[in-house]
């Protein structure tokens, strides 16, 4: 009960701070390179996510940071629960945007910050929006930004790895960037398995060996998708 209050109070209470920081960051944008601005923007979401995770009192183990490639990459993760994003934001120093539901735009401050993080908004009820998001994400990668995607499309809530939708492979192929598989285990224990009450959990995040474009571009799409999924599946089973 108290963990839930602490966590959600911080989640929304940090918004005024984030709004002020964003304004100061945007003033510096003309003087910075793409990489420099992405790093600057990443600092506040990382602090926000770290604050959230501390308030859940969860222990997060991170492996494989040395495997993160330089330059833009498509981060491909399984999707256990609502705390996947805070765990990844607080654990991975590489700046990234991500694909998010259109409904997030109803919140104050958050969508503006997400746009500067290079997040993509998608209306999952509209097929044209979903198709457009593929092109928009590939374009972000071509511009030098990294993007996180959950190819299962929805949370598993700790019930096992779902099937991967094909869009992420098309994005990586179009953009010509590495795919970085990420295996995350334990986030559903923070909330989804507790009737949406927040409890401390043991979370393990594994960054796995990247797949370079030369590898997956030579495979049929279905085989390449299965290769990435099986890599994550094997890591989750360790």
TrEMBL record:
Reaction catalysis annotation: a 1-acyl-sn-glycero-3-phosphate + an acyl-CoA = a 1,2-diacyl-sn-glycero-3-phosphate + CoA
Example GO molecular function: acyltransferase activity
The keyword Transferase is assigned to this record: yes
Listed SMART domains: PlsC
Family assignment from sequence similarity: Belongs to the 1-acyl-sn-glycerol-3-phosphate acyltransferase family.
EC number: 2.3.1.51
Domain Phospholipid/glycerol acyltransferase: 73-187
Keyword annotations of the record: Acyltransferase, Lipid biosynthesis, Lipid metabolism, Phospholipid biosynthesis, Phospholipid metabolism, Transferase
SUPFAM superfamilies assigned: Glycerol-3-phosphate (1)-acyltransferase
Protein name: 1-acyl-sn-glycerol-3-phosphate acyltransferase
Recorded domain comment: The HXXXXD motif is essential for acyltransferase activity and may constitute the binding site for the phosphate moiety of the glycerol-3-phosphate.
Keyword rRNA-binding among record annotations: no
Functional pathway: Lipid metabolism
